[in-house]
Write a structure and sequence with these properties.
Order of helices and strands: HHEHEHEEHEHEE
Structural class: alpha/beta
Radius of gyration: 16 Å
Number of helices: 6
CATH topology: Rossmann fold
Distance between the termini: 39 Å
CATH architecture: 3-Layer(aba) Sandwich
Shape: globular
Strand order of the largest sheet: 3-2-1-4-5-7-6
Strand content: 25-35%
Largest sheet: 7 strands, mixed
CATH class: Alpha Beta
Number of domains: 1
CATH superfamily: Vaccinia Virus protein VP39
Bound molecules: S-adenosylmethionine
């Protein structure tokens, strides 16, 4: 599979983390973990720390990412620990669900697609959640000035409205924005929405 820019970018980072045995949950994954119950999907799982932790607490997990070294490493860890994590390497641009899950996490993925695919990806997350289930979405939003991770114009900085409109009629369980300083006086501005589909 030819690697899109961000996948190669994160692949190098994951290689370093695998070498160092660094598998800590990031703050967004920690926020998501309590909602990962039942049959769950982690879209853009990266190293799969959330997927692994969710399986450890009893969830049955499907984890997808385009990054080969990350999914191979997650599959190895899941087999060694005898945990129910089904892992697959997949290019998720244009992905559509064929079934529904009790929880769908999509953390730090959709902004790497150009606008049309990013918005369709958000719709796909919406459609992948079953009745009473939970969507956990984290993306970079307008105001972000750190551009190094992006592949040319293939990115989308979301608006708050795009996120909230998608989950209109759902119960918003959590919504927050986090700012992080980035190199060369730039900033990364993330928004997280956790919402429950009516049962
Ligand atoms: C910021 S990392 C987030 C990983 C993980 N969710 C986390 O919170 O640590 C972005 C992830 O998106 C994946 N990714 C980027 N473009 C992708 C694509 N077109 N298809 C599938 N995965 C992609 C990268 O490989 C990387 O694992």
């Amino acid at each position: 599979m030819e690697k899109p820019g961000p996948v190669a970018f994160f692949g190098e980072q994951f290689d370093r983390q695998i070498g160092a045995g660094e598998y800590a949950l990031n703050p967004f994954e920690r926020q998501a973990l309590p909602h990962m119950k039942g049959n769950v999907l982690d879209l853009g799982c990266g190293l799969g720390n959330l997927a692994f932790a969710a399986a450890k607490q009893g969830a049955r997990v499907t984890a997808l990412d385009a990054c080969g070294n990350a999914v191979d490493d997650l599959a190895r860890r899941a087999i060694e620990s005898d945990l129910p994590v089904w892992v697959r390497q997949a290019d998720l641009e244009g992905w559509r669900p064929e079934e529904q899950w009790d929880a769908v996490a999509c953390i730090g993925l959709l902004m790497f697609f150009e606008r049309r695919h990013a918005l369709r990806g958000l719709d796909a997350v919406h459609d992948a959640v079953g009745p009473g289930g939970v969507a956990i979405v984290n993306v970079l939003v307008e105001g972000t000035t750190f551009m190094k991770m992006f592949d040319g114009d293939n990115y989308h900085l979301f608006t708050r409205k795009e996120l909230l409109d998608t989950f209109e009629g759902w119960q918003v369980l959590e919504e927050r924005e986090d700012w992080f300083d980035a190199p060369e006086n730039t900033v990364k501005r993330f928004r997280t929405v956790i919402a429950r589909r009516p049962g």
